[in-house]
Give the backbone structure.
Amino acid sequence: MDTNLAVRARGVSRFFGDVVALDAVDLDLAQGQIHGLVGPNGAGKTTLLGLLLGLATPDEGTLEILGTPAGRALTAPDGVAGFVDGPGLYPSLTARQNLAALAALRGGTRTAPIDDVLHEVGLTDVADDRVRGFSLGMRQRLGLAAALLTRPRLLVLDEPSNGLDPAGKRHVHGVLTRLAADGAAVVLSSHRMDDLEALCSEVTILATGRVVFSGPLAKLSAENRELDYRLRTSDPAAARKLAEETPGIRPVEDSGARRDSEVLVFRALVPALDELVTRLVRAGVAVRELAPVVSPLEAAFLALTEQEVPAP
Ligand SMILES: Nc1ncnc2c1ncn2[C@@H]1O[C@H](COP(=O)(O)OP(=O)(O)OP(=O)(O)O)[C@@H](O)[C@H]1O
């Protein structure tokens, strides 16, 4: 067994009647890493996270969590915390009382100080307010605080950025990054590719219950993959002409960009892109914006799950 792995799944399947929610999933989650889980609706993300939380057991395959084979009993494995389908909270209790109730359930000895976790997720000011009046984002943060209370070595989160405003999101990202830096494994699902790219070192892409990619985000980089790019310059006409003359640059006509638009959209590999930028600079054309229309992760997601690329 690889002791650096927080999770090792081999051939894990899970069925709901005729529905194959997970189909022979292999997954390695390393300690000290934040791992993103993406996939279209119904791909099996929540089902997989539920297995890690002990909410269900695999119908086929083997699953090791923090070095222990997942048994048949439906209990959260020791050292694992998190939630799927939103955190379970008592609405009539305050944030602090919710955490105290959870700490009492855990025996109180192995938990982190309540004030510390409230501070960590930025809920100190509303610690004594009833959860009934909390927004979705505040509930998400309290759910995270509840998970942190148990000092998890594996944190499992389903759409943790749901309902968070930009400041709340930054807060949560900071918490997760610190947790991973301290050696915990974090796995989270999200439909927000920008969140995953900002946070995760590794991703797994699921499609209809199967793993279609799993590995470092860097492996999905633009190096070996043609992407669509948007280019805005000080001289759109000159830029268009230079792009047409540069080998490997293909204009994308059906992208919604009009001929007279200031923005040029084209498809290219990175070396052709480098060449075009060099030619623009040499011709005295200033590059004001050059960016992929969709990020490398989103492009891979769309390609691997066979979804249509939206027009820019
Ligand atoms: N309790 C259940 N009973 C029957 N079918 C289920 C159950 N839970 C999940 N499924 C089915 O299993 C498949 C995977 O569902 P799951 O919720 O894991 O997907 P998901 O990737 O989390 O989707 P979403 O992005 O919409 O949350 C779907 O076809 C779903 O309908």
In short: The chain has a mean pLDDT of 88. The CA atoms of residues 13 and 60 lie 5 Å apart. The two ends are 46 Å apart (CA to CA).
